[in-house]
Every structure is written in C-alpha cells, then in structure tokens.
Amino acid sequence: MPDGSDFMGDIFRFVGAVLNMLFKLDAQSNPRMTIWTSDSLSGDAMMTTPLPIDVSAMPQPTGTQRTHDEIATLQQIDPDFNEMEFLAMGNAQYNAYVAADGAMDPDALAAVATPSFVDVYRKEVADWRAAGMRRVVRGMTTTGSAIIKVSVDGTRQAVIVRFSASGVRFTQDADSGVATEGSAASQTFSDFVTFVRPPGTTTPKSAGTGGATHCPSCGAPTTSGAAKCPFCGTQLTGTGGTWLLDHVSASAYT
C-alpha cells in the first residue's frame, strides 16, 4: 500500500502539470500574454530588448545656453573675440544707423554697413521721396543689447544682436504730416541687427590683451585694437576684417 506522503505528492505533481498546460494554452491564444516556463528559457530568452529613447522628452538647452555655446564655437577660431567689446562696437554702429535713418542719408552708412545693405537702404529712401514721404526719428535711446545667435560657415561669420530701444520713429506724408508707417508717439521696441564679417576673420588684440602699442616697423603709436598701423600699414594682429551691419528687422526670423 503506497505511503500517504507519496500519494499526496503525486496529486500535487498532477495538478501542477495540468495548470502548467493550461497556462501554455492561454499564452498561445493571447498574443499579449507572455509566459516563461522551465522548458522555454534560454540565454536569448532571458535577454530583454531595450526600450526606445524619446529624444523629444529629454531636456533641451535653453536659448541662452545655445547662444553661449555658439559664442564658444566662434572663440575657438577667434580666441580674442570678446562679447562685451563686440556689443560696444555694435551699439555704436546701431546708433549710427539710427542717425542715418533719421537724416535719410544712405551715404552715412558706408563706414558701418555692408555695401548691399547701403544699396537696399538707398532704394528705400528713394521710394519714400518719390512717394512724398519723409522719415522722422527723434529721442531715440538704446536701453539694452544682447547677442542671440552666432553662425559661422564658409561664406561669412554672422552675429545677431537684439537691441531694445525707445523713442519716436515713423514715416509721414511730407505735405500733411500724417504718419503712414509707425506711430508719432514715443514707443519701446526691439530691432534685430545682423553683423557680418568675412570667413576666417580674427579679432585684433587690444593693448590690454597683448596687442601692440607701437608699430614694430615704423615705431608709430597705434590705436588700441588696430589690425594695421595707421601710418605705414604694417599688419599688427588679427586679420583686419571688420564687423559690418548687414540687416535690420523687427523680428529675429526675417
């Protein structure tokens, strides 16, 4: 007569086999259900497929960080590029543009703007005059400036600066004095100005960063940050390329 413990063991083994078979059948009929059994495990089966990475869900760099990285890229090819010195230069050129705009004088832009920009502005002035319009600019004050984008390629180096300003700037009918574009009231606004220079250009050193204070050729005193001696033309530091105003827009994307 079989021992009681052996009898109960046989029953448990039988029930386990039946349950295992039922689970296998259910897994085969339901493709969304995966059951691992002792006879289906293998080295490959134990490997899991990595989940895809959703790049769009990852933290993206802020606009400020992107600009910082773009400036760093420019400084790799032009170690003497200085953001504060550039903005000081940019402010001076922007103010020169504002003054030329108020005087409707394209020739006043020749020293600070690219020839293509001067030509575009010259046509704009001609169109205003032909239509009996005039430009009114007064009380203009620049309240802030910041680099928002830097790009370097094989055709040019470009820096876009956002200038915040306030004042009166509009176009009016010369006879009636009625504003045809803009407002006769003082307003605050932003101009997005693109400055460009040739590819491969590097910034001349100032005296404070190791630039020459006297020409090594003729001994004449030099202007701080000059690329060439103003007396004999000897190259001092940098390539001598100058940043020039090339585009002005009310939007960073036009």
Kindly describe this structure.
The protein is α+β, with helices and mostly antiparallel strands and 254 residues long. Strand 1 and strand 2 form a beta hairpin. The protein is elongated, with a radius of gyration of 36 Å. It starts with a helix and ends in a 5-residue tail after the last strand. About 4% of the residues have low confidence.
Rg, rounded, reads 36 Å
Helix/strand-derived category reads alpha+beta
Biggest sheet overview:
4 strands, antiparallel
What is the CATH topology of the largest domain?
A: Nuclear Transport Factor 2, Chain: A
Mean pLDDT over the residues: 81
As residue ranges, the low-confidence spans are: 32-41
CATH architecture of the largest domain, by name, is Roll
Number of helical stretches of at least 4 residues: 4
Strand residue percentage: 15-25%
Q: How many individual domains?
A: 2
CATH class of the largest domain: Alpha Beta
H-E string:
HHHHEEEE
Tell me the layout of helices and strands.
Blueprint: H1 4-29, H2 63-77, H3 83-103, H4 115-130, E1 133-152, E2 157-173, E3 179-197, E4 244-249
Task: Name some characteristics of this structure.
254 residues; four-stranded antiparallel beta sheet; 4 strands; Nuclear Transport Factor 2, Chain: A; single chain; 31% helix; alpha+beta; 4 helices
Write a brief structural summary:
The protein has 254 residues and is α+β, with helices and mostly antiparallel strands. The chain is built from four helices and four strands; from the N terminus they run H-H-H-H-E-E-E-E.
